[in-house]
Amino acid sequence: MCGIVAAYGDIDPEKCERMLARIHHRGPDDTGRVHLEHAWLGHQRLSIMDVSGGKQPIADDTDSAYVVGNGEIYNHEDIRDVLSEVRFATDSDTESAFRLVLRDGSAALHDLRGMFALAMAHTDGRGAVARDPIGIKPLYWARRDGVTLFASELRAFDPEDQPLVEAFPPGHVWTPGLVGGAGDDYAVGAMVRFADAVPVEVRPARLAPDKQWTEEDLGHIRDVLSDSVRRHMMSDVPVGVFLSGGLDSAIVAAIAAKVAEEKGERLPTFAVGTEGSGDLLAARAVAEYLGTDHHEIVPTAEDLESALDEAVTVIEHFDPALVRSAVPNLLLAREAVEHVKVVLTGEGADELFAGYEYVHSEEFSTPDTLQAELVRSIEMLHELNLQRCDRATMNYGLEARVPFLDATVMREMLAIPAEWKLKIHERTEKQLLREAFDGMVPHDIIWRGKEQFGDGSGAKDVLSALVEKEKAKEGAQDAEHPTVEHGWALRSDEEVAYYRTWHRSFAGVRPDRTLGAFATA
User: Fold this and answer.
1) Does residue 2 carry a catalytic annotation?
2) Which one from 2, 100, 221, 370 is the annotated catalytic residue?
3) Ramachandran quadrant class, 276 (left: phi over 0; alpha: psi -120 to 50; beta: rest)
4) What is the pTM of this model?
5) Domain span holding position 86
6) Which residues are annotated binding-site positions for L-glutamine?
7) Residue 260, burial from CB neighbour count under 10 angstroms (0-12, 13-18, 19+)
8) Total structural domains in the chain?
9) What's 503's domain CATH number?
10) What digits encode the pLDDT tens for the residues 147-182?
């Protein structure tokens, strides 16, 4: 996990250096850059794989091609087996991806299993920039005056560039135009999709109207998720788990604890919540059951209040649901980074197994409509929960990994008949997932009802009170919430308050080009 900056076309090295410095927090271990005639690549490194030798940019054998990368390639050892003729300069997973693309072209991006944003450049003017299919790793770009700029965060861009910034679409690769080509604008280049967030073959719902799942089906779920967690624990540095107190993170912790035990280690886990909050107590019960090395952060109202403005700026978003969960997440990340460099989380399980209450409304009451909504929600994750998850952890140089969103997990879990995920026949939400891991997680946690992280941690009540104080200071609100420039409507007093904070840092950024929003605020 790192931060990257890239520029193609008419390069201003000083601008690139400013951009890289603004994301130093993403990779405090090292800084690297390379300036070619038509490209500039910069890298802030968080050392996780090949700690001593994985410095970036990484060059090919002739120093004619370079790469910088953010993220992890979990099948990098498999790639090295395929590239048996290659002499690798490092043990870095980024080099594995780089060498595969050098050999097979951008079509090889489809074979990468992981989370990534990659930027490559050649001395002859060729290059490529790509983002993983779900958008687990962030990437933004801006095009102006003969140059195309890329960066891992919004805050990297100069104020004059902010109005031009857009989210780089997941599952796409951009290549610059031909240098000196007749009529070609080198910095404009071309964009191609190399993979969908959700595999096309599992988009239609599989019908199973008369069939109930079997123990074999439950075992398959356990095996697929266990393999993913094991891969996601790939690291040369310590790995822990964020325990939210809910089902999903408890399942990840249960699998990870077994993997750690096989290595003769004890899994570190981390939980946050106000004194006596439901999340804190539930996480404690899971940690005791699994025998983990458990760490708790118990913030006061003052702690939460002091983190609020920082949270809005750090996650680069003002959606209330994201901000409420980001505040305790920041406090949790600040503690966890004192013990580990990598944490696993339960992000994505609700989208795969229909965990949100709204998807059990009449609107999504058939297998086909439910499946379509699950696919849509996964395609939107890069603008919402994944953005909050990435920024809140990387603000402290901590890498968060999401094993539920592994490509194989998504393919297999979305191939499950959508009918099995409906709340019918006296089922609760995520009944299938609960049954699959019953016994590996405490019974009370397996059947605990869902709470949003900001609610269960105790943050929601504190932050709501702060919003009321802010309203009183600002004076009476208009009857209707304002619509910001470019048609983005603010939907609640809470969102208005967070938007004001966001606007102070990102005044030039267009939300309609860079952010998403939950259905309600």
Assistant:
1) yes
2) 2
3) left
4) 0.93
5) 2-193
6) 93
7) buried
8) 2
9) 3.40.50.620
10) 999 999 999 999 999 999 999 999 999 999 866 554
